[in-house]
Specification:
single chain; 192 residues; mainly alpha; 10 helices
Length: 192
């Protein structure tokens, strides 16, 4: 059985190199369903998540990593996502896909970065955006757990930072905040 799985993984990895996005998409789906895959395969998924020209392939590779990614690969991916998005195409910011990871360790990593006193303000803002993009349920749950952990351990720094993050979380903006029609009309008044 392991030999069959190894053979399938090799075939799925070949799909990641295909020119047409549908083959890369299928390869990512299959690898994400495999439960465990070699570290090199995870790195290939992370590379697609960062650089594939097709947004659907980037999304499905990120989701696959959320299913099978080991902490070191996910940590490296999140570190890359903390870097500012290229200003040439802000609508294709790979950070927008971080929600596909749906992972407590990712939120904890973003929080640890956010509370670093040496962090420059643009990087802190980027960490806030990425946490907000992770979703309204997971992040407050993780932050509440960190608050409890800090209070139980007598770690005032952790507890204070978690409390501050919880208080500010609702005001943080996702990578691509949706704009409603009323806001658009205020920005661009229509004349009839």
């Amino acid at each position: 059985r392991p030999a069959v799985k190894a053979e399938l993984i090799e075939k799925w990895l070949v799909l990641l190199d295909r020119r047409l996005p549908r083959y890369r998409w299928i390869g990512c789906q299959c690898l994400g369903a495999a439960r465990t895959i070699p570290l090199e395969a995870q790195r290939r998924l992370a590379k697609l998540a960062r650089h594939d020209p097709d947004p659907y392939v980037r999304r499905v590779s990120m989701r696959a990593l959320g299913n099978v990614g080991e902490p070191e690969v996910i940590r490296g991916l999140v570190e890359d996502l903390l870097k500012p998005a290229p200003s040439t195409r802000p609508w294709s910011d790979p950070g927008d896909l971080i929600e596909e990871l749906r992972s407590r360790p990712v939120v904890e990593q973003l929080f640890a970065t956010w509370r670093d006193p040496q962090l420059a303000e643009p990087q802190r803002h980027r960490a806030e955006q990425l946490m907000a993009t992770m979703g309204p349920l997971l992040v407050p749950e993780v932050l509440s757990g960190l608050l409890e952990r800090g209070e139980a351990a007598g770690d005032a720094g952790l507890a204070t930072a978690a409390r501050t993050a919880l208080a500010g979380f609702r005001s943080w903006r996702r990578i691509h905040e949706r704009i409603d029609v009323a806001s658009l009309q205020q920005l661009f008044p229509f004349h009839s």
